[in-house]
Amino acid sequence: xxxxxxxxxxxxxxxxxxxxxxxxxxxxxxxxxxxxxxxxxxxxxxxxxxxxxxxxxxxxxxxxxxxxxxxxxxxxxxxxxxxxxxxxxxxxxxxxxxxxxxxxxxxxxxxxxxxxxxxxxxxxxxxxxxxxxxxxxxxxxxxxxxxxxxxxxxxxxxxxxxxxxxxxxxxxxxxxxxxxxxxxxxxxxxx
Length: 191
Prior knowledge:
By secondary structure, this protein is an alpha+beta fold. The protein has one domain (about 35-185): minor pseudopilin epsh domain (minor pseudopilin epsh fold). Helices cover about 30% and strands about 25% of the residues. The protein has helices spanning about 15-30, 35-60, 155-160; strands spanning about 65-70, 75-80, 95-100, 105, 125-130, 130-135, 145-150, 165-170, 175-180, 185-190. The strands form two sheets. Strands 3-2-1-6-5 form a five-stranded antiparallel sheet, covered by helices on one side. It has a five-stranded antiparallel sheet with strand order 4-7-8-9-10.
């Protein structure tokens, strides 16, 4: 018994290969347009906001101060569980260092400053080991209002604004607010 193939549609191997090659070319063009650096800065801003919220909640649960020091030159933060509330990293007090993602630095590049944060990379005036620090108290409040900027090293070198992010902490409640410089005119709230 012989099957009749006439009238049955299908694609040849050559047609399938041409379609696969065309899809590959279009995918490579789309991938090359993705701004990975901007995604890294966005991700790090979310991580830092979450870390600050964690530090505030940790202060409440430990019933002691938690200090977050900003090491701007080395692009990292240190979270100190200051159990005796003396403002110094003593023996036995847990400290955790978190580095910023590769290519992300503290600063705002050429974006304009947010008045509540100021022009520097970090606006906190309290310190821990000589570094500016946010201090969260056992009642959930912050020692002071302040914030900091994140951007990419590429943005600083090329004076780009659109990769700049800011994080602001409200003093009374320690509410963390994220901002992005979304256009050439204004900062936009991200929360």
